Structure formats: C-alpha cells, structure tokens
Amino acid sequence: MLDKLITELDKGLRTLCAPAHSARAHPDQGVDEADLSAAEKRHALGLMRVNHCGEVCAQALYQGQALTARDPSAREALRQAAQEEVEHLAWTERRIRELGGRPSLLNPLWYTGSLALGVAAGVLGDKWNLGFLQETERQVGAHLDSHLSALPPDDARSRAIVCQMRDDELQHAEMAHELGAAELPAPVKAAMKLSAKVMTGSSYRL
Description:
This protein has 206 residues and is mainly alpha-helical. 77% of the residues lie in helices and 0% in strands. It has helices at 2-17, 38-68, 72-98, 107-123, 126-150, 156-178, 186-205.
C-alpha cells in the first residue's frame, strides 16, 4: 500500500512540476510560426493555458478512476487514455512557452479536485466510471472545437495541436462507449459543464 501511495504521489508531482514528454511528434512540427499581433498572441496564450490546465485535470481524473476501477480492461483503457493526455500536456506546455507565457497558477487546485472526482467515479462502478470518461471526452471535444473557432486564424501551430487533441479525445470517448459506458444523467452532465466553465475562465487569466 505504501509503494502504491508513493507511486501515485510521484505521478502527481510529475504532472504538476516536471516537463511532460511526447512519444509522438508534436502536431505543429514543421508548421511555420505566424506573425501574430500582441493581442492575438495573448488570446492564443490564454486558450492554450486553458487546454494545458484541462490536460492536468485529465491526468488527475484518470489517475483517480484507474485507482478505483474494478475491471482490468476498464483500468487499462483509463491508463491508455492518461498516457495520451501526457502527450497533450507536452504539446500545450511547449506552445505556452513559445507564446511567451506560463501554465496556470491554479493547476495544483484543479489537480486535487479532479483526482478526488476520479476516485469517486470509480467507486460507483465500472460502467459509471467509463460513463464519466465518455462524457468528459465528449465535452472536451466540443470545448476544443470552440477553441478552433476562437484561435487567431493565422495561428496554424496552435490549431494543429488543438485539432489532434480533439481527435484523440473523441477516440477516448468512443473507446469508453465500446467498453460499456453508461450514459450519465442530465444533471450530472450539466454540473460537469458548469465546473469546466469555472476552470476555463480562471485558467485563461491565471
């Protein structure tokens, strides 16, 4: 139990403090940097900081869900999704630096809350655990679509990253569906959207 606790603590510290690494090539590799105005750069930075914060939350969420998942296939699906989210962390983190910014100062707060939420989802049972994964990824996919509309049109580097992230998230949702995810009640979906809205607004600025 102590070894497991140390392992999970190490995961959290790595997510929050250590640079993330991507096994895949960064989606914006080979894409030229646009000549953005100061306002466009600030806006793109805010959006990418939101996306990075979302990936921090995803790491914590899937970590908590995997801890309490009962079925080995569900646990493995969560771990696989978490690994791809690490790549998203690396992509967004580098893009934030390129735009002259830093990750959200609120990441530790959102990580802690997401970890607790993931543990709670897993305790409810695997079909609800997977249902939470499915709905999370659906909402994230819609959120990333909105960012594609909001990003400066000439910012092809950020757009390439967000496009690949959206495709990965939708694949995670489909994977959860195929494994038997339950459809979450409407009030739960609404609460998830409200929580995401609060996180988005705060991490854009901070």
